[in-house]
Amino acid sequence: MKMQKGILFIPYRYFVTNKKIFVFLIVVIPILLSAQWLETTIYVPDSLSGMTYPQCFTYNSVNNRIYVGGAYGNCVIVIDGQTNQKIARIPTGSNNCDLCYNPTNNKIYSSNYYNNNVTIIDGATNSVITTATVGSSPLGLVYNPTNNKIYCANHFSDNVTIIDGANNSVITTVTVGSGPENLCYNSINNKIYCTNWNNNNITIIDGITNNAITNVTVGSGPIALCYNSTNDKIYCANYNSNNVRIIDGAMNNVITILTVGSCPNALCYNSTNNKIYCANWSDNTVTIIDGANNNLITTVAVGRYPIAFIYNLTQNRVYVANYYSSSVSVIRDVMPGIEEQSTLNATGTMLEVYPNPAKSFFIIRLSQSADRLEIKMFDVAGKIIKSEELKGKNNRISLDGIKNGVYFIKVGDEIVKEKLVVTR
Known about the structure:
- By secondary structure, this protein is mainly β.
- The chain has two domains: 2-333, Methylamine Dehydrogenase, Chain H (7 Propeller), CATH 2.130.10; 341-422, Immunoglobulin-like.
- Helices cover 0% and strands 58% of the residues.
- The chain has no helices and 37 strands.
- The strands form nine sheets. Strands 32, 33, 34, 35, 36 and 37 form a six-stranded antiparallel beta sheet that branches. Strands 3-4-31-30-29 form a five-stranded antiparallel beta sheet, with no helix packed on it.
- Strand 29 (306-312) and strand 30 (317-322) form a beta hairpin.
């Protein structure tokens, strides 16, 4: 929550509406010309979790698990990073606004907005270790691996609480600007960055001394941060300015300003491909930025009101929490020119069709060996254009004589149709 001109302003992340929650659904959408894919969507509310309005993530690199916190449900749910299946529910405080991971001690931290505390979770057992009392209305969290410290931004206390990663005790409290929201860590220079919503700036904290070093002016409504360790840059999403400010990690000055979508409110860094992901709340999209040259790469459509990210280094996936969809979108980053669609049939066989768009051929790959399965290729009028028998798991299908256009692929009797674009 934020104060503006003497009036209490409640950000969209805290709004509540009555929404009908749909059953688990897998959606795979090709983003042409970009090699960025919305691979799947995981719907959160069910008999296991009972969570609605997901709004924060963290990734457990030791166990390859994703932790999701939400506005309602008083819990954190755990998703298997390999299978995308929900595997555990962990009780916490009310309104989990952020999560972070401590790989040194294999712990997860959840800021509980209405309880003014942080729940500390064992990453091996998914059980609660203890609860640490912090300031008023805790929001952002970040981990300092150099000094094994956890930082918690307390929105209405105008300060940051620092927690010892080993013994879970509070070390000290650092005064920052008005309305601290989000945090990120600079591993090269051992600095912590804190957005101050009401001051339109960022406070920089020394990771060793715990002292505030300086403030950097950014855009209106700074709400999210992330750090690019490859190029030593900090990215700040400014909710009211519809842009991202890029800051030099060594010099503490703004390098450039990028216009993104409407109401950017979350950021994430992909260290494998050196890309930054920006969630645009009002557009229901994610803008992807090149970490080396600061250029915009593409925009990916996701669920309703994206609000948080986490990056899965093991599978090279980015998870997006969609607040009003009560779902999690999964964006897959693949090699340029290799684009896939995946669908499960009734027996659990995975079908992949790629490349898509295709030129002279496409490949059908099955997770199980085909035994006289027939492929049929239809045009938009429903006419069969091509049919062929599949053998084994991988089949190369020629497109000789096939004109440019949109076609549909069907394999056997159980597998649903897949759309294929032919462009030469």
